[in-house]
Amino acid sequence: MRAARLTGWRAPLEMVDLPGPDPDRDGVVLKVLACGVCRSDWHVWTGADPVDLPHVPGHEYCGEVIAVGGDVRGWKVGDRVIAPFILACGRCADCAAGHQTICAGQVLPGFTAPGAFAEEIAVPHADANLTALPDAVAPDLAAALGCRVTTAWQALTGRAALRPGEWLAIFGGGGVGTAALLLGRALGARVVVVDVVPEKLHYARELGADAVVDASACDSAQAVRDATGGGAHMAIEALGIDATTRAAIRSLRKLGRMVQIGMPAGPHVEMRLPMDAVYSGQLAIYGTRGMPAWRYPSLLSLIEGGQVDLTPLITRRIALSDVTRELAAFDTPAPPGVAVVTDFLN
User: Enoyl reductase (ER) domain: which residues (predicted)?
Assistant: First the structure.
């Protein structure tokens, strides 16, 4: 199979031919139909989230089942499916309680296992993790769901319970921020997007943001408080950066909620947070990472029913050989939208 393999930090991914994987007893092998290029892949590429080399990254994928392990009961060859990037064991106490994203036996394709920058990928624990992909959802969109959209959906509905009429402040107008904007509006919230890239702010306006804030030109937290008449009810930090996390907290009104979606890495693993604002405002801070498979149907139903159009997320459909260029773009403020690999032969 054709694959893009990482052999050194920040090195161009090598286009190689590798043996196709075999399914585990409880797993399947997918022909990858599409795979997104995400900032989390950039953390792997730079070594900020180190993996054993050589390694095939890629964790936002959908595919068609082409091989099935002997213990799999729910899936057959030919099924079109999607899977979360956190593959839970399906058997432990956390999984039984519905908390698959904290499963101690989890497998992470693209991180702890070979990923989906390849023509094929092995998915363990298939019955616990796969969800049928509706015909109405195109593969490129399904791939974008795998991390950014599902993480935003979990943050908005599974963690901090966004309510209609509330103000949602999004710090970072990249893929997950754009997903949160579209989903937040579908849930009836008013949305303000904060970024430093004029093109992203313009794009957010085009997608229906009620307000935008250029953080390079002002105190972004104060600007959000001004735009929302006293502060956001809920804020999302979508970059994993010290400065935006602090600003997200300070942008909240009293009793507000902040969700840390951005992955802190490198110098941002430890942050200096404004705990005076947390204390005096009686704020809540949530962490979130991925979304369990059992929550996919609610999101897919929203899409199938036409309540939200997520297609504006996809702004670039690329070949596998273009992945390095997209990863390098995360070194600087990346262009609006999401890049998805749809051509695995070039």
Answer: 8-341
Give the lowest-confidence range in 109-113, 194-198, 284-288, 309-313: 309-313
Write out the residue range of the structural domain in which residue 24 sits: 2-148+291-343
Confidence of residue 84 (pLDDT cuts 50, 70, 90): very high
Nearest Cα to Cα of residue 170 among 137, 210, 140: 210
Clarify whether residues 157 and 278 are in a common domain: yes
Q: Are residues 55 and 186 in the same domain?
A: no
264 and 295 housed in the same domain? no
Give residue 212's pLDDT.
Answer: 98
Q: Could you tell me if 288 and 159 are in contact, meaning their C-beta atoms sit under 8 angstroms apart? A: yes
Q: State whether 136 and 161 are in the same domain.
A: no
Strands 60-68 and 28-37: antiparallel
**Over 90: is that where the pLDDT of 336 sits?**
no
Tokens representing residue 214 in the block: 């250029």
d(CA 345, CA 118): 9
Nearest to 219 by CA among 181, 198, 250: 250
CB 222 within 8 A of CB 245: no
